[in-house]
Amino acid sequence: MKEVALGIDIGGTNTVFGCIDSEGNCLVTGSLPTQKHEAIEDYLDELFVEVESAMNGSADKMQIIGVGIGAPNASFYSGTIENAANLRWKGSIPLADLVKKRIDVPVIITNDANAAAMGEKVFGAAKGMNNFIVITLGTGLGSGIVVNGDLLYGHDGFAGEVGHMIVRASGRECGCGRKGCLETYVSATGVKRTVYKLLARHMGDSELRDVPFSRLTAKMVAEAAGRGDLVAKETFTYTARMLGEVLANVVAVTSPQAIFLFGGLTKAGDILFNPVAETLEKQLLSIYKGKIKILASGIEDDAAVLGAASLIWNKR
Amino acid sequence: MKEVALGIDIGGTNTVFGCIDSEGNCLVTGSLPTQKHEAIEDYLDELFVEVESAMNGSADKMQIIGVGIGAPNASFYSGTIENAANLRWKGSIPLADLVKKRIDVPVIITNDANAAAMGEKVFGAAKGMNNFIVITLGTGLGSGIVVNGDLLYGHDGFAGEVGHMIVRASGRECGCGRKGCLETYVSATGVKRTVYKLLARHMGDSELRDVPFSRLTAKMVAEAAGRGDLVAKETFTYTARMLGEVLANVVAVTSPQAIFLFGGLTKAGDILFNPVAETLEKQLLSIYKGKIKILASGIEDDAAVLGAASLIWNKR
C-alpha cells in the first residue's frame, strides 16, 4: 500500500487530478471538465468517481493520506471558494467540507499561485529554502510567498496579491476595477497591451502590425522577438524591467532568498529573465544586493497537480 | 524573586535600559551615553555596572531571564550589529555573544522597528493579533512586520524595509544612495522637504516662510497646521496620502489585520491618521476593503525598552 496525496487543480475549463507520492511521482492522473455541472455536489461526485476509477486501473495499491486543492478565489482559512468569477458555483462554496464528506482525510485548499509556491518547495527548485517567492505569469500575475518555511496567508488568507500592487498611478485599467496594477503590465495580457502601445508610439516595421489585438498572443510576441522584431523585443524589455522594479519593492518587505518565475510567459527565456534580474539588482537597497536569485521553476510536468499535492506532503 | 527581561535600546545618542516583568511593568530603568567608549567592550562593561547598580537600588528582588536589544543595523540571525552608520563601533560587532559572556541567558537582538512591533504584540494594542504591521515615523521610516505571530525576518534577517520601497522613480535623493524611497517623503525629514517643495510651488502666506530649513522640525509643521496654516496642512495631507498609497501595496503582499503608526510624527494626530486611512481604503484591492485598521500605538512610555524586552517575553 503506497501513501499518496490527491492533488486537484480546479481550472476555469478543466479540473486535473493526480495521486502523488512523497517523492513527487505522479502515479495516476485524470481530468474532467470543470463547468459541466451546475451543482458543486454533482461535480464532486463525478470527480471522485473518476479518481476511484483511475486508482483502480493502476497496478499500484494506493492510500490517500490527504487532499490538496488549488482553486481560484480559494480561502485557505475557511476552506471555501469565494465568488469565483470564472466558475459556475456562485457565492461561498464550502469546498473543503464537501470533499471531507467524501473522503475523511485532511483537506487543504489554496489558490494556484500558493500551490505553485509550495510545489516548488516540496518537489521543485526551492527545496530547502524557507523564504522565497513564486511569481506565476499567465493571463494574469499571481504570487505565492513562503516565509519561515510556510505560505504567507496573512490575516484573512489573501496575502500574496503582488499582481494587484499599483505600479503606475492612473495607469492601465485592471479587471479588479482599479488602474495601474502590476498584472496589467506584467502578464500575457500585459504583453499584448504593451505591443499595441509601442505600435502606436513607434513608426518602424514590425510583423506584429499584421495581427489584430484579439488574435495576438504572448507566444507570438516571444517568437517575433526571437526573429529580431524590434517592437517584440522592446515589449519584453519593458515588461521585464517593470517586474524587476516592483520585485525590488517586494524584496524590501519580505527579504527572500530567491524569486521563481513560473508559467507560460517564462518560456520566452533570457529575453525575460535577464532584464528582470538586471533591473532588480540595480534597484535593490544595498543590503540586498547580490543576494536575491531570479530562477526558473524546477517543476516541468503536472505542475498544478504537484503543487496541490505538496500542500499535504509539506505537513508530513 | 521576580522574573524580568532586560530590555536595552541602543540609540545613536543614548542607551536606555529597563527591567520589565511579564505584565510590561518597568521595575527599574537607567541610561548611559552610547558614544562615550571607543571599544564596545568598555561600553558593555559600563552598561552592566549601571544595570546592576539600578537593580541593587530597587526594593524588588529580580532575576533576569533574558536580554532583548533593539539596535541600529542589528541582524537577528547572527546577533551582530553590521556597519551601523551612526555608532562608533565599525564593521561587524558580535553583540549577542559579548552580552552572553556577561550574563548567560538568552539574548535576542533586532532593529528598533521590529522591537516596536513585538512590543505592540506583547504589551500594546496588538495583543492577540498575529498579522500586523508597525510603521515607525521618526527621522526615517521603519517597519516591523508580524506574520503568523512572529516577526518577519526573511532570508537574511533584513525584511521590513518599507521605508526603502521606491515610490517615485527619479524622486527625492535618499540617504541610501538611491532616489524616491518612501522615507524621503514620509518621515520627519520628508515632512520638512515637502514644506519646502510647497513653499517653492505656491505663492500664499505661511508662517513657515520665516523658518530656515536647518531649524524647521516636523513638530513646528504640525503646530502650524493646527493653527490653520495652509502649507502646513497640505504638507500633512501629501505625506499621509503617500503613506496610504504605499500601504495599499504592502497590504497586497502581506494582508495584515491592522497597521499601527508609531513615533514622533504621529503626535500630529488626525491630520495624519485620517488621510492615511482614507487613502488606504480608497486604494485597496476590493478583497481587502473594510478589513484593515489604521491604529495608534498602544504603548506610551518606555516604548523602546518595552519593545526590546518583549523579544524575550514573546518566547515564554
From TrEMBL, chains A, B:
Record field: transmembrane: none
Superkingdom as given in the UniProt entry: Bacteria
Family the entry assigns: Belongs to the ROK (NagC/XylR) family.
PANTHER family named in the record: BIFUNCTIONAL UDP-N-ACETYLGLUCOSAMINE 2-EPIMERASE_N-ACETYLMANNOSAMINE KINASE, ROK (REPRESSOR, ORF, KINASE) FAMILY
Protein name: ROK family protein
